[in-house]
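Let's practice the habit of predicting before peeking. Look at the sequence and jot down your guess about where helices and strands might fall. Then scroll down.
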Amino acid sequence: MATAITAPTYDPTTTAQALAEKYVLARQQILDAQGKQASATEAALNQLSSAMSAFQTSLAALTGIGKTVYAQSATFSDTAIGSATASPSAVAGSYSFFVKQVATASQVSFTGLTDNAGVSGDLKINMGGNPAFTVNLASADTDANGTLSPRELAAAINGATGNNSKITASIVTTGGTSELVLTSKDTGANTAITIDTSAVSVSNDPDTGNPRTWSLIQANADPARRRTLVAAQDAIIHVGSEGGTQISQASNTFTAVDGVKMSFTKAQASGSAPVTLTVGADNAGTTANVQAFVDAFNKLKGVLNKLTDPGDPSKNVAGGVFAHDGGIRALNERLNGLLRPTGGDSLASFGIIGTREGTLELNSTRLLSQLALKPTGLDTLIGSSSATTPTGIAGALDKYLKTWSNSVDGQIKQRKEATSKLQSELSNRQVRLDDQYESARKRYLAQFTQLQTMQGLMNHNVTLFDALFSNSKD
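Done guessing? Here is the structure:
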């Protein structure tokens, strides 16, 4: 009896796939590792870019044009009278004022308005007795039905050339008539609103031939229908007591005290005691500003420290994405150096102390004690991040960070472009490797399909021989 040939049982398809995968395995592992590193680099650059942008935004808010870290407060003895703010240049002390009247914006109304036909010409709007702008009534009929409605009139006033939001027109409708309300944007006696209808034309009624009238002309001529809702007036204050030096202006915001901005909201009754303005150091505000600077810097440093962390192989702790990147490590170290300018005061003398991790912490007691001796010393040291006149630590930080964050030629942009180029090349290499895998798979599939066919044929032949020469045959 012949013995059948025993061969491994396999599927040509899965065998071909396995061998093809093994064929490209080493190169695929390299591509996967490079792709993973490129993706991690891209994410880390985006994280670094966001951290830098956030810090520079915070820096501008604290030290930009007109900004200072040192804060002073200005407070009225009666906060119902008004409010005030003080710049660092304001001289500490107490000041007294009597508020005779506050400035108001003009508001007038014209009642009993109806739709009118045949109205054309120019409606002149005056403020403070002087021409402000002109409304072309011929183009005010927006639906072209030959009739000018109060709402069309209000829209024409609001959109008139030269208005530029000086006056806002609105309509209040009651019953069958409407009320036109005109309100000045600004305050002061020079905003008093009046209208001039001398250049307005009203055509005759074509059916009767009788002259037509325009309801606004009638309202303007009738004191009962032309009402002053709010009289325009200037603000008037007296320095010291009620009989002190008078200051009059259109706005309720005064700058009579150097470095102080006062906004009055309520007038005082005659004979009332003057309101007292107290100007002095705002310790809480200054501390909050310095803490904001410390926090903003620490957030940026926290991101950099994480990205450049060397890790700990002995504890199986991986390093940061830029652990071996000399450029990013230099950036991290450079920031620490910029906080320590040579000569003069130091941040530490104002209680802003560096830690071993390169971050900052604030000793508010030391800060306030030093500011009591040198009120403007910290602002001089920190300086300004203004793009036109950068000074001090803030200016140096912002200028250096822009070499990284600049959207045109900054290092982050250059690194992103290099990473993007690498990712594109890796994608092309992956396509080529996929082609090699497919070619190998097809080759192996053909070979093992042929081998499987041969194996089947040989087993068939063995079966035939077994049938021919079996001992069971007579």
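How did you do? The two ends are 14 Å apart (CA to CA).
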